[in-house]
Structures are given as structure tokens and as C-alpha cells.
């Protein structure tokens, strides 16, 4: 899956060019700063909510104590925080890989319709096949994500010029809108599942349980490993398919494996948290400002930044509407939609 190379993409800098501008020491410092920010986000996620927890009670709860309401509140927020971390990391990493594979700055699991395809598969499984197990959700979501990615690329490749970034984005947005309507059509006759599906479809990490996370972890870990192993080949693909092949890269194999890793991440994330959008779009662009275009650095940064962004969004959702909560999918949409418009308006980002 690749997009037409236009504009500045045809003269994309070699993988080592970013390293000259950003020495490894600077990148390591930014990585440490990002890790510290992520730790602060985790502390805020455990302490902030409808009931704020003082630091001393937070420390006591983390030490295993559960003697009062403050400490009990922390215990209920631990799986929620863990889910926000793993889903945010998965979406950030998947977005960076999708943008690298397609050389499309608009690529994102939500924009390309992959998350909505996974959602449609899960909802169809629930409504028509009695699908209720965590493993069943994950397998259905991965299958739906994979089929949708193939469909969007096929539609975006039609016509003159092949799969340009704009055509892929339009195909993804149109597919996402169509699948949203299909989901509504599937759910409407089933009042017994409508409330649960409606809430899940917004995207959120509330009500997280460790047993659900444990079911998704093997798929998320496998997807992350595949994506990280593709970092160096993705640097070669940034030079163009012909040059990458001349350097000894198996272009089709690299692109297919990297896309498989991103589909695993998107499918498993959607199964456990719903279709959360824009994390995979915003995070890689911000990380490129810190570390450049070298995927060996960009992918780990995107995972950490994605985890931090989703955790912060979850905390903001608890604060804005106290004592009620806004699902994290609403917060990420409020942040990501203006960012998406800004990217579309920038003519120099037609391709990576």
C-alpha cells in the first residue's frame, strides 16, 4: 500500500538526515522527558476524578492499602489507566506505521476507516452471531480492520494517479461514514444491545477490567513487535519503492508485514476500547517535530506519546463534566478534528 509521490516527497531526505539535525543525545533527552510526562499523566489518572485523591492516600493505595474510600477509588482507576496506556500506545504506533507505509500524512486508523470497520465486524458478531466473549471481539475486530484496510486502498487506487494521499483519505472517510450507518442499521432492531453498543461505539476506557486487557495484550504485543521490526525498512521505503528495492528491501513484504502489525494494533484496541479516533493522526506529526523522520526513533516516541495523549484525554473527560464523565473518544475528536483540518490545508504535506 503506497501513495503517489508528489511535491517534496519525491526528494524525501534519507533516513540519516534527521539524525544530523537531531543528535542521539537530544533524542534521548526528549525520550526521558516524554517518559517523565507519561509518569505524571499516570499519577493524574489515578488521583483525579469525581473524587480527588490526596498524594499520601495515592501512595498508600499503590502500596497495597485499601482502608478508606480514597484508596478504594485508586484501586478502581488502576485498570482504567492501564487500558488508556496500552490503547493509546497501540493507536499512536499504528498511526505512525500507517503514515510510513502509505507515505500519507492523513493516514490514521480513524481517518482510513479501519477502526470503524473493526467496529462493524464486532457489532455484526454481537447482533447476528451471539458474539460475547473477549477473544471473539478481538478476532472479529482484527478481521474487520484487515478487510476494511484492503477495501479502502482498493477504492483509493481507482482512477488516474493511483492511491494518492487525498484519495485514500476521502475513501477512508466515506467508508467510515457508510459503516457508521451500517452499524446503526444492525443495532436498531436489537433494543437489547443498543445501549451497550452505543456507549462502546463512542470509544472510552471506563469500566476497564484486567481480564479484558489480558485477552488483548498478546495481540497488541504481537502487533507492536511487528511494527517496531519494520522501522528500518520503513526508512528505506521513504526513499521510494524503486530505490528501496535497489537497496535490497523486499518492498511488498515490508509493506505487508508493517500493515499487518498496524491492523493487529487497531483491531485489538477497538475491541477493548471502541473506535477512538485521531490519536494515530496527531501523535506521529508531533513526534516528527522532536525526532525527525527516522522510524527507529519515531515509532517508540509515537507509542509513548499516544499513551500520554489518551491518558490525558481520559483525565480531561473526568474533569470537564464533573461529576459525570465524557468518554475519551469525544475528547480526542475535539483535539484531532482541528488538527486534521490544518494538515489538509497545508499543501506541502500532500505526501511524506
Brief account:
The chain is mainly α and 352 residues long. It has helices spanning 15-21, 24-47, 55-62, 69-102, 114-129, 134-156, 165-187, 191-202, 210-229, 231-237, 241-246, 251-273, 279-291, 295-320, 328-345.
The count of β-strands is 0
Radius of gyration, taken over Cα atoms and rounded to an integer in Å: 20 Å
**CATH topology term:** ABC transporter involved in vitamin B12 uptake, BtuC
So what's the CATH class?
Mainly Alpha
In CATH, what is the homologous superfamily?
A: ABC transporter involved in vitamin B12 uptake, BtuC
Account of the 3D structure:
The chain is an all-alpha fold. It has one domain: ABC transporter involved in vitamin B12 uptake, BtuC, CATH 1.10.3470. 74% of the residues lie in helices and 0% in strands. It contains 15 helices and no strands. The longest helix is centred in the N-terminal third of the chain and has 34 residues. The radius of gyration is 20 Å and the shape is globular.
